[in-house]
Design a protein that fits this description.
heterodimer; A: 386 residues; mainly alpha; 14 helices; 65% helix; 3% strand; B: 173 residues; Four Helix Bundle (Hemerythrin (Met), subunit A); 79% helix
Chain lengths: 386, 173
């Protein structure tokens, strides 16, 4: 048992080494890589590493929760304008303080627990939903590393070499929040919502996973940072080498459909279909517990948008110009702009499409999406092996 | 003690506690949730041993898909609390030590004679490339035979689950 500390050290070195090599070789796909290439790549010692990680987690959590709140605002505003309404206008300019008002309202409302619910799970279910939704953001990189002295600080909480699998695992655990909420509420509408959610999420997870394998074959890695790095550069000098322009358009289509179903959004929002099931699995929830489901849904939307950006739309790659400060900030700007675009599409779809019938949902998932993603996987594998 | 060893022991303790809780709980859904905790803790152990890919697959397949179906079935059948009968005291007095003795014996025999040996924490080569090499190159035939076996099991399940009339009709043809 004594070689543990050595093994850890070896591990950290081996996981850091390829990144350092890539920058030293002058992989000048972006200017940023070039001017960081002369630095030494020194790993942090344990204490500093822990402190930096805690700080990064705090910042990420703050940004994510703010983004969740303002995605709700954006949705209400955009859907309002699509339906010839104004959306929120009363609290603050353009209704911009509406999320704060909603948050205060959720905190101070009476938190009802109906009789005959199964209490331990009734309380645990919303927490599970929100915990898994927030966890999956931890491996998502939002830009290149920046440097403090000789130490690289990647713009993500942690870069693990199974990043994508980790996200898939965590999101697949997210179904328990919904299913257990439906079951523990002791309400037939909630139960139906929970059952629908678990059946739907298990079905579409297969298509979701298969649609991503095409990208994995092209990148040859599970690490999200390496997948983004593999999309650097241009075709014929002007078309970016993003996976979407690199033959993964069917994969992207499958991913988007399956991800919409995974996040229970229109047109796949059967678990909370208000015309049939009152409010589905969260019928019996009020105040902050309801807000937790709400936060989980929007946090999952943001994760899906981030993954679509990273896997198919080149992550933070985009035109980079101007002075040094701008060059550092532009990749992050491109990343956020692309994520924003996907969130807008989410809302657009919600404002446009009706809901599927349940049999249509299952038929679409198993008879259309699954074969399509399998075909995409085979075609990609053959093309890469060629 | 390094942080890894502490974590390894902690995950092991969670795993055992989850397994005991699985047996002790009277409600099926609590037992199913305890089993999920066991699976997740096992994934943590794999991760600490250095088998990241196996850990991720453990969470995705067992905790995220198979256990969802368990919970789904329990919810659908609306299975109630299990009834406790007062078992004989002799069974408890003899059974618990007997079980402990048996498991220790099995563990000892396996460790002594199987030649698996021990592995240092973080020393296992469990990255996706190694696993792929093992599955699709070194052990390709056993892997394919196992998948055929699973396919047969699926077909058997479909036949058993389909309506009896349909089966009879097929037999008549």
């Amino acid at each position: 048992m004594q070689p543990t500390a050595q093994a850890v050290g070896e591990f950290r070195k081996s996981s850091k080494a390829p990144k350092g090599r890539k920058t030293e070789n002058g992989d000048c796909t972006s200017l940023l890589n070039c001017f960081t290439a002369d630095r030494k790549n020194m790993p942090l010692d344990t204490l500093t590493f822990v402190i930096v990680s805690v700080i990064k987690s705090g910042i990420t959590l703050f940004i994510l929760l703010t983004a969740v709140a303002y995605t709700v605002w954006l949705e209400r505003k955009v859907v309002g304008h699509m339906q010839n309404r104004w959306g929120p206008t009363r609290v603050g300019p353009f209704g911009l303080l509406q999320p704060a008002a909603d948050g205060i309202k959720f905190l101070f409302k009476e938190d009802l627990t109906p009789p005959h619910v199964y209490k331990p799970l009734f309380i645990a279910a919303p927490m599970m939903a929100v915990i898994f939704a927030l966890t999956s953001i931890s491996v998502i990189p939002i830009g290149n590393s920046f440097w403090i002295g000789d130490h690289p600080i990647p713009l993500q909480i942690t870069d693990v070499n199974i990043g994508l699998l980790l996200i898939l695992g965590v999101t697949s655990m997210g179904v328990y929040g919904v299913a257990l909420a439906g079951w523990s509420s002791n309400n037939k509408y909630s139960l139906l919502g929970g059952l629908r959610a678990s059946a739907q999420m298990v079905s579409y997870e297969i298509s979701l996973g298969l649609s991503l394998v095409g990208v994995l074959i092209m990148a040859g890695s599970f690490s999200l940072r390496e997948i983004v790095d593999s999309q650097a550069g241009h075709f014929w000098g002007f078309i970016p080498r993003w996976n979407i322009f690199h033959g993964q358009i069917i994969g992207f289509f499958c991913y988007l459909m399956a991800a919409y179903a995974e996040t229970n959004r229109i047109p796949f929002d059967l678990p909370e279909a208000e015309t049939e099931l009152v409010a589905g699995y969260h019928t019996e929830y009020s105040a902050m517990k309801f807000a937790m489901f709400f936060m989980a849904e929007y946090a999952n939307m943001i994760t899906v948008a981030c993954l679509a950006t990273l896997l198919f739309f080149g992550g933070w790659h985009g035109p980079i110009f101007g002075p040094r400060a701008l060059q550092v900030l532009l990749p992050v700007f491109w990343f956020i702009a692309k994520v924003f675009l996907f969130l807008f599409i989410y809302i657009w779809v919600r404002g446009t499409l009706p809901r599927f019938r349940y049999d249509q949902l299952m038929a679409f998932g198993w008879k259309f999406l699954l074969p399509l993603s399998l075909v995409n996987l085979m075609a990609t594998a053959i093309a890469v092996a060629w | 003690m390094s942080l890894h060893l502490i974590l390894f022991l902690a995950f092991g303790a969670v795993c055992v506690a989850g397994a005991i809780n699985l047996l002790a709980q009277t409600h099926p859904i609590n037992s199913a949730l305890s089993l999920i905790v066991v699976m997740a803790a096992l994934a943590g152990e794999y991760l600490l041993l250095g088998a990241e890919f196996v850990a991720a697959v453990q969470v995705i397949v067992y905790a995220g898909a198979i256990m969802v179906l368990f919970v789904f079935t329990i919810m659908l059948l609306n299975a109630g609390e299990e009834e406790r009968t007062k078992g004989s005291r002799v069974a408890v007095l003899l059974g618990v030590p007997g079980m402990l003795l048996g498991s220790v014996l099995v563990a000892w025999v396996v460790l002594k004679h199987s030649g698996t040996g021990s592995v240092a924490i973080g020393a296992l080569l469990g990255d996706p490339k190694t696993i792929g090499q093992l599955l699709f190159h070194d052990f390709l035939l056993p892997f394919e035979i196992t998948s055929v076996l699973i396919l047969i099991a699926i077909m058997g399940a479909v036949v058993l689950a389909s309506k009896p009339q349909a089966v009879q009709k097929r037999r008549a043809h």
